[in-house]
Design goal:
By secondary structure, this protein is α/β, with parallel strands linked by helices. The protein has 2 domains: 210 residues, 3-Layer(aba) Sandwich (D-Maltodextrin-Binding Protein, domain 2), CATH 3.40.190; 215 residues, D-Maltodextrin-Binding Protein, domain 2 (3-Layer(aba) Sandwich), CATH 3.40.190.10. It has 18 helices and 9 strands. Strands 1, 2, 3, 4, 5, 6, 7, 8 and 9 form a 9-stranded mixed sheet that branches. Strand 1, helix 2 and strand 2 form a beta-alpha-beta unit. Helix 1 packs across helix 12, helix 9 runs antiparallel to helix 17 and helix 17 packs antiparallel against helix 18. The longest helix has 19 residues. The relative contact order is 0.17. The N terminus is likely disordered.
Amino acid sequence: MRRRTRTPRRLAALAAVAALGAALLAGCADDGDDGGPAGGSSGGGGGGARTTLTVGVFGAFGLKEAGLYDAYTRLHPEIEIKQTSIERNENYYPQLLTHLASGSGLADVQAVEVNNIAEVTATQAGRLEDLGRTAGVDRSAFLPWKWGQATTRDGRTVGLGTDIGPQGICYRKDLFAAAGLPTDREEVGRLWAGDWRRYLAAGDRYKAKAPKGTAFVDSASGVMAAITGSGATRFYDADGKTVYKTSPGVKDAWDTAAAFATHGLTAKLQQFQPSWDQGFANGTFATVSCPAWMLGYIQDKAGAAGRGKWDVAAAPKPSNWGGSFLVVPSAGKHRAEAAALAAWLTAPAQQATLFEKRGSFPSARAAYTLPSVAGARHDYFGGAPIGQIFARAAEGTPVQILGPKDLVIAQNLADVGMLQIDQKGTSPEDAWTAATKAIDNALDQ
């Protein structure tokens, strides 16, 4: 289950989500059988040599864990699949770029995280196969904005989307009731529908009667990430120019998130840190912006005591946090077979299986009408119809312009800037100056 990134913060989430599994409803390829597949069938086609395809991933990617490799090799006994995995994307991605540049050391199919796909598409497209032309790939089955993220300006689609991270607002019904706010998820969604500032206003209402020792939201940085995920223009413009300093969407996200901090509505936590985990366990905040993949994380950290207390409502605006892609390097020995595998793994039926088994929400909108997605509910969250909630968010998310250094910009805005407002009381103006200086240094500007 993935979302925004598999940096150290996300790795903690991945470990927890992998343990929950069903609760949420790299060398070159070689030929022949050399000891049995790592995630594929051991059966053969009449005992003859098989084609071995390697898949390079990062973290607990989920394809193997969901049984998809086994299913594919049952359909294609002439294929053997072996997976290699590097735990951290910050170690995996530089190696991928190095191997692409050299044309060696590559898996037949490689995963790419959403925060890296813009750079891969812009700088490595010539070293990757055009998967949009692969038999069985239906562009219309995917969300347009997801398809566009891995498509070059001349129309080559070098990556097929696996999952995405459409967001809702997870909230504590018991804390809302104590503060005099509605608890029904439809009513809760109407509190802030259409405007993140209405989410802020709901926080002010909560604070007026908040149960002792609780805050409305976990962190200002989390709010900022959710808001920036709901806008078309964030850190880059359509020409690839860095524009985060003047972007209206970034300014609105910064100002609104800073207001959460200055209004005293946050628990002053940093996401994916031990204190954040403890906040779930102790019920110290009432809401958190949550992509589909975070539900399992919340269930793990809040534990049995949180069952039935948490629910999910629609976010103020459709927003996305996370997702990944599969690409096929042109240097591979079995490009056609690898492209066919990538196409099958990202087809709607397999994405629905990945959601059912691992909680990774499909990027193929054609999967949203399948029973395992459309009818999905989460018992821990009061039977919330998560398939419907997150499908609406996914379909409403705008086509977002991605840039090669989105992650660098986002992390510095959050950790150098917004975190200081939240935890140290730094003024929004001084925090912005510090964050932009750090970003300029990181980008050599």
